[in-house]
Batch of 2 targets.
Target 1
Amino acid sequence: MIIILSSQATDQDVEKIVANLEGRGYGIHLSRGVEKTIIGAIGAPDEDKALIAQQIETLACVERVVPILKPYKVVGREFHPDRTMIDVRGVKIGGDEIVVMAGPCCIECESQTLEVARFCKKAGATILRGGAFKPSTSPYSFHGLGEDGLKIMAAARDETGMPIITEILDVRDLEMVAKYADILQVGTRNMSNFGLLTEIGNMRKPVMLKRGMSSTIEEWLQAAEYIATRGNYEVILCERGIRTFETFTRNTFDVNAIPAVKELSHLPIIADPSHGTGKWQLVSPVAKAAIAAGADGLMIEVHPEPQMALKDGPQSLKLDTFAQFMKELAPIIRAVNRVPAWSPVSELAD
Amino acid sequence: MIIILSSQATDQDVEKIVANLEGRGYGIHLSRGVEKTIIGAIGAPDEDKALIAQQIETLACVERVVPILKPYKVVGREFHPDRTMIDVRGVKIGGDEIVVMAGPCCIECESQTLEVARFCKKAGATILRGGAFKPSTSPYSFHGLGEDGLKIMAAARDETGMPIITEILDVRDLEMVAKYADILQVGTRNMSNFGLLTEIGNMRKPVMLKRGMSSTIEEWLQAAEYIATRGNYEVILCERGIRTFETFTRNTFDVNAIPAVKELSHLPIIADPSHGTGKWQLVSPVAKAAIAAGADGLMIEVHPEPQMALKDGPQSLKLDTFAQFMKELAPIIRAVNRVPAWSPVSELAD
Amino acid sequence: MIIILSSQATDQDVEKIVANLEGRGYGIHLSRGVEKTIIGAIGAPDEDKALIAQQIETLACVERVVPILKPYKVVGREFHPDRTMIDVRGVKIGGDEIVVMAGPCCIECESQTLEVARFCKKAGATILRGGAFKPSTSPYSFHGLGEDGLKIMAAARDETGMPIITEILDVRDLEMVAKYADILQVGTRNMSNFGLLTEIGNMRKPVMLKRGMSSTIEEWLQAAEYIATRGNYEVILCERGIRTFETFTRNTFDVNAIPAVKELSHLPIIADPSHGTGKWQLVSPVAKAAIAAGADGLMIEVHPEPQMALKDGPQSLKLDTFAQFMKELAPIIRAVNRVPAWSPVSELAD
Amino acid sequence: MIIILSSQATDQDVEKIVANLEGRGYGIHLSRGVEKTIIGAIGAPDEDKALIAQQIETLACVERVVPILKPYKVVGREFHPDRTMIDVRGVKIGGDEIVVMAGPCCIECESQTLEVARFCKKAGATILRGGAFKPSTSPYSFHGLGEDGLKIMAAARDETGMPIITEILDVRDLEMVAKYADILQVGTRNMSNFGLLTEIGNMRKPVMLKRGMSSTIEEWLQAAEYIATRGNYEVILCERGIRTFETFTRNTFDVNAIPAVKELSHLPIIADPSHGTGKWQLVSPVAKAAIAAGADGLMIEVHPEPQMALKDGPQSLKLDTFAQFMKELAPIIRAVNRVPAWSPVSELAD
């Protein structure tokens, strides 16, 4: 770490800090400028560096402490330069193929779920999404079917062969949800639920970690580190929009985050333009943008009758709109030298 | 709700929506302007209004749906015009007295906790704060002493008589934490942890609900509604700063929120200038500002040696700084016609 | 407009507002719900609606006023459903062709500018960008060559045939800058410089209006309206990123804004991924994303030696990186059924 | 500056950077850690440090460049530890006295302006505010009376003896506005209008510089530096709220900025709770908060009939509300050991 002292710092202040850090095993480089004195501290092997930095920053004679190393390691590219590819019942995420996860926001009933699943599969989706437990800002809203919803999803998987992804909302349901889900989804409100992250880290099951709506990329990667340091390396990141001052869209989809994450981490990244925009008319263009920017896949909300949906209707695509979208997506995928995980089924949208 | 139709909406579109809403029991006011048609829908007693609004908004012929009623009820002033006062072992929160909750960020050891508790009490604090379970962005940081920390807090309460407030981080620990705590604290990362809110709603124990760092005031009041609708009305709100583009401070303390909440809700509101600024030098002026703006109390991090603290040292006040602050605070409290919950103990800071 | 009254409003309050609005020529729809009374006011032809709304909102008995009409008109799609195409010396912006504007951030010297211009043209760019007047947060930074810079740009235009775009920073320089520029650029810091917008509105010259870094889409369209209402309809919008809490990138490129603007307005929209990301490594993926999302063109900073650039080096592409990027861009353009404004010159990047 | 190299940097990369910086006159401290190499560069006297930092950051082998010195100097406390006090026709800003600037948002007519001026003076205000040139997001709104408005303000000054502050919107009007104004006000949209800042810097007249609505504190101080480096040291800062995701208030008043500015700069700071909240009900509590946090004064919008105001009615105080507010403010001022710039005139509000 680098310690920038305030211009009021005395020689004694400097000596005290140096002695403290040397006592902890740091190598010290001291440099006195005309206006500022700077202490470089290198290589303390066994302690919590972030804490020491914070403690040093607390001193009145210190203006600022600048960390040198990134606050994550296992999920960083410096630790593991090759890209991670995750295999979910034969569907590969993070390889050349672009994967589309599609389905309704919430599981509402069995016949509808099966209808959507069959349709999405035919249109090219390879993973079925659906919520059985739904977070909701209002205490008066629909909160999902719970385990019954998971059973419906499992039935849809049995019929279509598509692996299923669903959100784990409450750590107490983890074991039960994990029995059904092929990929566990951690939602934006749980990105900093460190108890949940730790338990998932102790499992051996793929997890998709959505970015917190006000989390920086660095905090998001630290959350992934929580999971990975427990030994569960099958972490998929999902950009789903951040909260900004703009109100026309529900969130601001941070397309910059896609190439940024690819530069900083080896984990695959999925884009969720449904939440990232909140408006079905914007889903298709922003989904294409995400793929053009390098995303490894998409998560799209699809509903046969959005105007009857029990949640998120305004951001759900109708079946035929989804099919049309998938047709338009394939050329973009090829334009970035990747491969759709499906073969073109042109009749669907015609 | 008010439905603003797009200029492309046909007469048939209008009739369909009107029929749908009348079928659900709404009274309808239709008004056709030169450029826009507007449907006012009033008084549907038994359904989920937010859902119906969302479903209507999904229709292509609809430009926008404007809700009329606020999305919370029980915690709103229209429902309950008198201010709520909460009694915690004889300490009144939300009345004329201004309450100061003080103590270390984390409980680190017994002797230190007792030292801080005794000192804070003498300086005027009436509630002891301290963390036994700590959320932390980094998986490598200190996470608290757990139940041992709670036992230390209980010992400090036994000695000093101060009620204790501590954070409940994981819903699985709720029963255990509630055994020790006089006030349960829900942290900023858990404001939208709806499972936890529901369980706390089922208890009969005061809770302090911190604002989510990217939550609007309206969402925060909805989170309070989650708890209150279960029957636990002893909810204290806590403004602790929001996330903005400013990086000089850790958060932007939203002082506007204090009078805003007082206008919209009857619940008491506490300010946390330690997290709201992240810098100990700013804690005192911002704490005074919060009281001047109408806050019912403060939560302040105090540590005997901030440069040795295991967490949040840079935002913790030293003991003598805290004592000096309390002396300076009393005249502000009186200037807004309120009363310090303590008698002046002038010798402490002299 | 729709006026939502507070639950304290009396019958007299309602009558007073109704009489006031009827006096101004509004048609009134009054609807009394159980909890709220709502006044719909329709069709006041000649006055400043925003002002009246604000005055009504000032009344203590009013909770909220909801406007019905959008705050812009001439630049909206409801006013002019067909897309606007702007012809700049034969280069068409807003049609099927995707236009790339490229060049250095600042004009530094003639030989370098000519080198970049020739190279960019060969690589496919059709408009030359370059700054002669540069805004700069620091008073100690380079501020551009002024009119000398414009002369260099004009020379580059003479040689290459590329039209030139350059920023007008100070309204006093407008006439002089307009003598040289083919497109005037209004930067992010001037989006709300209403004096400048008005003067540009009085000209007949294409203008590219960058989004204010903290402006909503609606405010941005209102700024365009300032120009258009004076009679200058040749307005090109440019998304260049907004300010958010994320610090890894210089700005957050708001890709949602591209399809949003296409839905709300008939004006062409250009993307500036150089400022939108602030990092040259992210420019290519985000540029591709913008095209996939429907942008009509790009503005890219290119410099022969970014490490020697007098401004914005970290976000400038080197010449060969730019050529490689242009090769990769063409297939994306075709994948969204559009046409590159250039013919592929494959040898450049090989 | 400190240069953190990427883990891919070679010895040759390091040597090249070192040679480059030594050639520019920097002293170099090189430190090689296990994972990262760091170059400290100290003391290059005569060049643009920010530019060199940017150029170095452009290199592929560089991960990050950390500046050591603050990007402003003349306005910083390290340069000038004593607080600056500005004398405006005998009214002192930045000393022990708290100054209140009050008046209508816009000057609308002479009789009303005189009425407000007389009343505000009697209630305790010592400076008269009023707008003759108004920025407005909508091209259809009122833009002020121009020079006629300034003449009205001058007449009010003649009668009441209060110095006047008014906004300079367009650099072309500067000379004319300066003829009338005692303090020039630079509005939030012009904080980065560097041409205007430079011209004001060349004058010898007090200026109040409002914070840009999306500007960091550091950028704001750099804008002040623009003015001060030209020789005009009479700069007053004004916090007026920043743009965040919260929509209940017009802006988020950043109370943290007040003590932060006091720590970083010697310039006086005024608070504008009218714009900082956008709601008259919140003006009084937030104004008190600003004073409690250490502000040197306030700027308050006052209007005899807010519901008829041509601008900003919802955030304007009525005359009697203002008088009541001033009565309540005095005890807060004394509670922070400062002095109201007025003597209590109790009869006004009774």
Note: The first helix of chain B runs from residue 11 to 23.
Target 2
Amino acid sequence: MATQIDGKATSLKIQEELAEQVEKIKKEGGKIPHLAAVLVGDDGASLTYVNAKVKACERIGYGSTLVHLPEVTTEEALLEKVKELNENDDIDGFIVQVPLPDHIDEQKVVEAISPKKDVDGFHPINMGNMLLGLPGFVPATPKGIMMLLERYDIETSGKHCVVMGRSHTVGTPVSILMSRKATPGNATVTVVHSRTKDIPSITRQADILIVALGQREFVTADMVKEGAVVVDVGIHRVPAPEKKSGFRLRGDVKFDEVAEKASFITPVPGGVGPMTIAALLYNTMLAAKNEK
Amino acid sequence: MATQIDGKATSLKIQEELAEQVEKIKKEGGKIPHLAAVLVGDDGASLTYVNAKVKACERIGYGSTLVHLPEVTTEEALLEKVKELNENDDIDGFIVQVPLPDHIDEQKVVEAISPKKDVDGFHPINMGNMLLGLPGFVPATPKGIMMLLERYDIETSGKHCVVMGRSHTVGTPVSILMSRKATPGNATVTVVHSRTKDIPSITRQADILIVALGQREFVTADMVKEGAVVVDVGIHRVPAPEKKSGFRLRGDVKFDEVAEKASFITPVPGGVGPMTIAALLYNTMLAAKNEK
């Protein structure tokens, strides 16, 4: 039976460490990190995410600003707001919550964010810096996965890591981080995706399996090697009338059966999910210290 | 016995096509592409490379400028020259030949080049654009490899491609290009490197093997699957007193024995090498048309 990787506890631990750093900065009279979040419209899920980020900032002593703009905000007005945040010296980093309304070009907005304040790490220059092994912001989910592997002392060097999914936000960046000459890293990395033939024959070779496919409970026990480390990035709502919320969460991995075979496994919820906020707050500290 | 992939002929074919485009632009009274190359110092090999690039420009009707600066040029003066080229509307693209003298920070120079004129594709923003599947310049060697696969109608979708080497200029970018949702592309990609355990067990799975390790004749027949496509990026000089030049060239692949097993193979010389110039000229055309 696998050891469950506790993403929630790890995230809180990292947030505690950041809070201690804030205390130290305060004592030394330095600049307290300040994160701003821009939300356009009133999408329920987005509002929840953004509020969680703002609350986490407050909890650990960061400054935080929520910029809530109406759904009808024009692209021009949003770009103007981004410019304002770029120029505001009190704001160390900021994010623009996606998805944006259809009338706004997301990529244009991302590229308008100053790379030095782009704590989401989605600006092409931060992606390029990651690829080149240069300092920069690493997107929250890949960063959170690397932090989990590090905190659980999981050896990655020389291991075969199979990444399922090639998205720009998770699969592709995490494949680069796992392959590069660093710790964690130095793994032999294979990326599989929708066009891959015979996925199980490849996933069964994985010492470390990172699943970011977006398909509910796709990975079954027969696809996993005995003793593998399994990281599940998926998150899906499944109707559950018996629950107060009316749903329960599932990942891309069939947890119960895969947990029987794996050495380590991240649950859903409570695995990778809570780490993204720790990674975002970590990036904001780097931005404040100008150390990204 | 494998079909030899003729990089020299393919490169010349692409250059011919570019020359035809130049003719067409001339007739229409458009802007003729203009490439500039900056060389600092008198390194023999660098001088040869840069001259070859300038000559290729002349042959296909591009404008070309060689900026030859003395070895003692300061970083500041070089950055000033880069700025000048960035601002010169007649220059569509330019390269700064590496290696630079030790007193100059190469990365600083690369980042000073306007991404719109960075036809070598080494600027982080171009690397990031490649990772994100956005328009941008792809570095010459990976681009040249993709062009070869395309011109030889080699199916990549759903194939297992093993990339040997994780360099920023070849291995990592080519792994992204082979994996991404495009043609050529859509391959299942594994990157192996110096920390990989049991390399042959992985390379023997490759339908397409791209070798960019920088180790002379490392890949032997027993490491290759029957019928694989083998692309050799390595280039090494081996003393050969019987030759006028005093040396012969070898790649990262033991050509004679691997050619017995492969379906397609690139020779050294005459394989990937000549393609880099075609890719550079291709990028310069994109820059001139502002279509990168």
Note: Chain A has a mean pLDDT of 97.
